[in-house]
Fold this sequence. Notes:
globular, alpha/beta
Amino acid sequence: xxxxxxxxxxxxxxxxxxxxxxxxxxxxxxxxxxxxxxxxxxxxxxxxxxxxxxxxxxxxxxxxxxxxxxxxxxxxxxxxxxxxxxxxxxxxxxxxxxxxxxxxxxxxxxxxxxxxxxxxxxxxxxxxxxxxxxxxxxxxxxxxxxxxxxxxxxxxxxxxxxxxxxxxxxxxxxxxxxxxxxxxxxxxxxxxxxxxxxxxxxxxxxxxxxxxxxxxxxxxxxxxxxxxxxxxxxxxx
Length: 237
C-alpha cells in the first residue's frame, strides 16, 4: 500500500512543484524572495538581539497551498521555541518551485543579516525534473560554501529528500545518497528525510497528494525539531 501511495503521488508532484516557477515567471527571483523571507523579521531579530534561524527551501518550507503561512513548519518551530523561552527568531525563506540552481542564485541576497542556524531544504524539484545529480550536488555545495564563507560560525542543517520509486531505482538511490555524502563531507547536522512519516500518506497531504496539510506540517516540524532542539539547548546553556 505504501508503495502504491508513493506511485500515485509522483505525477501531481512533478506538475505542482514545477508550477511555482511558471506562476512567478514575470517576477524576479529577488522580488519573490523578498516576499517569502520577510526582511522586517530579519531586522527585528537583529534589533532585538535574538538569534536567527533561516529556513531556506522550496514549497515545503514556504507552506504551499496552506491558507495561512503560519501553519507551515517554520512557524510551528517558532511556537516550539517560544514555549521554551529560547531567544530565536525563525525566518521562512521558502520559495515554491525553487531548484538548487535558483537557491544558489539568491543565496547571497538572502544572507543580508547574521544567521545563527541555516536550514537547507532544496533538491526535490531537481530530482523530479531529472536534473543531473552532479549539478544538484554542485549547487548544494555552492550554497553551503557561501554560507560558511559569510559566517563560519553559522550552524548548517541539511534536510535530505527522497524521490518516489518510479523515478528509477538507480537515480532515486543515488539521489538519496547524495544528501548523505554532502552532509558527511561537510560535517553537517543532517535530517535524512524531511517528509518522514508524511510523504505518501493521503491524510497528511493536500488534494494534490504531495504538499503537507496543516497536520502534515506539524509532523515535519517535529522531524526538524528532533535535530534542532539539541542545538538550541546546547547554545542556550
